């Protein structure tokens, strides 16, 4: 493949990505009702437990409808002349369909039979391996040391290093999204926010590169994920009619990790400006911040008690918001606010003046903090 083939005429295919995202949303929305009936008939129903917030049995397995929507969106993109470049020059979309399909099936089995944590971990690692085998892995990683100036340096990863980093990111993100899925609409909303931010960042890279086909796949992955979350959210927002279950939360985690890897793992900034070098990894960090923070806190909390990191409890971030006096809806909306400020603020760093954006992010985080502690302040 020569260099001329890697670049296409400038111009962002925003309408095409919107069409794919909306198509995915419609298919997911329509399919969720059918999946709900199937889940009830198959017995994939979440019965209330001590650590749960819901009080009545609710069917799960919504990830099946989300995956069907993603498949429909990918099929449409394959038929569009512009977005077909995502398939012609990369196997990333195929990796999503195969790896995402397998992790969705593993999640469905867990939704019905509640698999043990070791079996799920093995399945998650296998799905991450599928992404790696099809070429969806980290190649370049920025580090803050080395180089001739203060801007750090770029590490060129070999196949083994890139594969290990990719598997680690996928497994971490899959479990983080699984842990976040504790309130109605929480995982689907955070997934939607993260996917839109990643899609915007990928479109920025596409524009900056003059149409480099490298950046078509991450935007497509993020657009279909955003559509799937958007289509599922009306069924899942409080009061939920169906849960996405592990089939949905693990699918979101895998697709988010894949989109971030496809967008940032191959970026080669051309300049010593720190923000330009940092922005790809900052976007990944911002997108993953809320779920990964919850995951890390859970692991530390459980291991200090001598329990397994996968041992379930009722001390996640959303549970803490409920404890201090927020309603379910308000707790979910607050986490949406935190995720939005971090994700979209970081994307804005690569688009606008860093100083002004930094002030905006700081003000946004301050507002989110004040709103979060209002019930506790009132109690005093």
TrEMBL record:
Residues that bind Mg(2+): 178, 246
Membrane topology of this protein: Multi-pass membrane protein
Keyword presence, Plastid: no
The keyword Membrane belongs to this UniProt entry's keyword annotation: yes
Tree of life domain: Bacteria
Stretches that traverse the bilayer: 17-35, 56-77, 89-109, 121-143, 163-180, 185-203, 215-233, 242-263, 275-300, 331-352, 358-377
Keyword annotations: Cell membrane, Magnesium, Membrane, Metal-binding, Transferase, Transmembrane, Transmembrane helix
One Gene Ontology CC term in the entry: plasma membrane
UniProt cross-references to InterPro entries, sorted A to Z: Glycosyl_transferase_4
Main location: membrane
Location in the cell: Cell membrane
Gene Ontology molecular function: metal ion binding; phosphotransferase activity, for other substituted phosphate groups
Pfam family, one: Glycos_transf_4
GO BP terms, alphabetized: cell wall macromolecule biosynthetic process; cell wall organization; lipopolysaccharide biosynthetic process
Coiled-coil intervals: none
Cofactor: Mg(2+)
Matching PANTHER family: PHOSPHO-N-ACETYLMURAMOYL-PENTAPEPTIDE-TRANSFERASE, UNDECAPRENYL-PHOSPHATE ALPHA-N-ACETYLGLUCOSAMINYL 1-PHOSPHATE TRANSFERASE
Name of this chain's protein: UDP-GlcNAc:undecaprenyl-phosphate GlcNAc-1-phosphate transferase
Organism: Actinophytocola oryzae
Classification of source organism: Bacteria, Bacillati, Actinomycetota, Actinomycetes, Pseudonocardiales
């Amino acid at each position: 493949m020569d260099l001329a083939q890697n670049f296409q005429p400038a111009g962002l295919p925003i309408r095409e990505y919107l069409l794919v995202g909306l198509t995915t949303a419609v298919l997911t929305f329509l399919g969720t009702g059918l999946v709900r009936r199937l889940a009830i008939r198959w017995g994939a129903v979440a019965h209330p437990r001590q650590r749960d917030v819901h009080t009545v049995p609710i069917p799960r397995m919504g990830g099946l409808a989300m995956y069907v929507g993603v498949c429909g969106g990918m099929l449409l993109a394959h038929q569009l002349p512009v977005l077909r470049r995502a398939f012609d020059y990369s196997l990333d979309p195929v990796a999503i369909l195969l790896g995402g399909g397998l992790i969705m099936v593993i999640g469905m089995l867990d939704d019905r039979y509640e698999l043990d944590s070791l079996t799920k971990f093995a399945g998650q690692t296998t799905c991450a391996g599928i992404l790696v085998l099809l070429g969806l892995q980290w190649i370049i990683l920025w580090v803050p040391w080395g180089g001739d100036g203060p801007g750090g340096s770029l590490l060129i990863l070999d196949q083994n290093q890139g594969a290990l980093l990719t598997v680690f990111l996928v497994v971490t993100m899959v479990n983080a999204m699984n842990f976040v899925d504790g309130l109605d609409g929480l995982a689907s909303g955070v997934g939607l926010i993260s996917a839109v931010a990643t899609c915007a960042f990928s479109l920025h890279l596409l524009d900056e590169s003059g149409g480099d086909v490298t950046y078509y796949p991450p935007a497509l992955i993020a657009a279909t994920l955003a559509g799937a979350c958007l289509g599922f959210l009306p069924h899942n927002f409080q009061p939920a009619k169906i849960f996405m279950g592990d089939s949905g939360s693990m699918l979101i985690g895998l697709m988010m990790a894949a989109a971030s890897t496809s967008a940032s793992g191959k970026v080669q900034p051309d300049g010593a400006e720190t923000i330009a070098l940092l922005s790809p990894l900052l976007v990944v960090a911002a997108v993953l911040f809320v779920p990964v923070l919850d995951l890390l806190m859970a692991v530390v909390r459980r291991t200090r008690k001598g329990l397994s990191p996968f041992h379930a409890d009722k001390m996640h971030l959303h549970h803490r918001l409920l404890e201090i006096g927020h309603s379910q809806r308000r707790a979910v909306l607050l986490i949406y606010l935190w995720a939005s400020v971090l994700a979209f603020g970081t994307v804005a760093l690569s688009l606008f003046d860093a100083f002004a954006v930094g002030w905006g992010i700081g003000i946004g985080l301050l507002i989110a903090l004040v709103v979060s502690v209002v019930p506790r302040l009132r109690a005093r």
